[in-house]
Amino acid sequence: DLYTKALQGVSGYHPTFPQEKQTIATIYCNRGAAYLKDKDYAKCVKDCNEAIQILPDFIKAYTRKWRALMGLGRIDEAIDLLALAIEKMPGEESFQEDMQKTQEVEDKVQQIKYLLKNRKYGEAKDNADTLLRQIETPASLLLVAEADACHGIVPQSLEKCNIVLKNKPKSSKGLVTKAFVTLMDGDPDSAVLFIKEALKIDPDYGEGKILLRACRKIQREISEGRTCMSRNRMENSNSNSILKKALEHFTIALDDDNIPSKTPLHSQLRVERAEVGVQLRKFQGALSDAHVALQSNPQNVRAWVVKSQALIGLGRAKDAREELKQIKATWGKNKSQIKDAYSKVDFEVRVHEQDMEVRAMVADSRAKFSGDNPRGDENRRPPGAHRGSAEAKAATGTGAAEAAVSSGIPKAAALPDQVDAIEGRVPKPGMIRVGGQMACSGGSTTEEQKSYNTTDRPKRCSSSYPLGEACGASFEDDEENESQLINV
């Protein structure tokens, strides 16, 4: 304020004497230094220009203007300014040193932009950190923020943008960079608002227009994909056509070149596409998407849940259970979604194990009654009993019933078939006793045999994924196996 008042006192005055010129130029230069300290770089440049116009060889005015131009990110102008200063004052070594620093910064900036353009985000991040150690200005902060966001480091990126916007709230570059960072964080709606605000300040800002088009495309595809998923849930139809449309929308959004793979937005889209894939029974694709999402964020709860569902669909429920068990014991112990996912996958494993036990029992029963003895167990059939022999009949089947009548076995100690024989009840052709009831033996086509309808029997409860498929059979195979067991 004091410098401003002093300059107001000489407003309209054109100094002619060297002392007057020195005094007025110094006031302008000192006020420029105050603006530079407050990071009001545009006003600093303006005051330094006034000082240089009064004193063309004013070293401090050139130096402060150079710093202000660097702060504005106008590196080319800063280089031109130093070239002019060196020409006018070739003996001033400080200008030579500043020129070298400026060239190094310019090279580093161009390298970072090249790496970002070619999607080498890791290298861009390393170079951005080096740049920030060399010079910390709003321009360098925003460039580093962009590199950080592409590498998935969103909180630090937003912090750098806010530092710039705090000093200059109407910075178009600051607002557009913040919009990009917000988009990478998975919030395209807020990103659009920041871009619109920047374009109000500078309607011709080309970088803002380009980002707005890309942002709206991603916003549209995400919205359409989520709408399809919501519609599918509301109709409770699990319609393949609706789900395929959702899959297509998420795929289009993922194919956008503006979404680096380590960003939260990319991870979010991968998870949502994986959820659609599970419902479409595209388990391998869903597993791949979940894996990519977890690479950028190993504690993505939603990704772990959909990964467990994909593993269940692939018949790898045990793998899912082991992974979730470790997570539940560490960082996921207070996560209800992790606990629920573990409970479901644990249930699937138990059901699958019991299913396999039943299948093993069926296989053993087939071997026993068909005369096969794959395990070499000599006790499966009475010693000396061969298929069709009298000893076999005496040990099993109708031969046992006839033996009961002839040998006078007490009724209380007799088997069900032997009781039938003792009491004079003879099974009809094609019928045998199973569990206290008469059933078809498979050798007859009587009306009673035809009336046996397997669809009237209670079916085994299926789990949330086809256990039959996981172990190489279908639920239709299960019904056939039960029928064959009854038909023995």
Quick summary of this structure?
The chain is mainly alpha-helical.
Give a structural overview.
The chain has 488 residues and is an all-alpha fold. Helices cover 70% and strands 2% of the residues. It is built from 24 helices and two strands. The protein has helices at residues 2-9, 18-37, 41-54, 59-71, 75-88, 93-117, 121-134, 138-150, 154-167, 172-184, 188-201, 206-235, 240-254, 264-279, 283-296, 301-313, 317-329, 336-370, 390-395, 398-407, 416-422, 447-450, 467-470, 475-487, and strands spanning 431-434, 437-440. A two-stranded antiparallel sheet has the order 1-2. A hairpin with a 2-residue loop joins β1 (431-434) and β2 (437-440). α20 packs across α21 (416-422). The longest helix is centred in the C-terminal third of the chain and has 35 residues, at 336-370. The chain is elongated. Residues 374-401, 403-407, 411-415 and 428-488 have low confidence and may be disordered.
**How confident overall, as mean pLDDT?**
79
Strand content: under 5%
SSE string = HHHHHHHHHHHHHHHHHHHHHEEHHH
Please work out how many helical segments DSSP would assign.
24
Low-confidence stretches: 374-401, 403-407, 411-415, 428-488
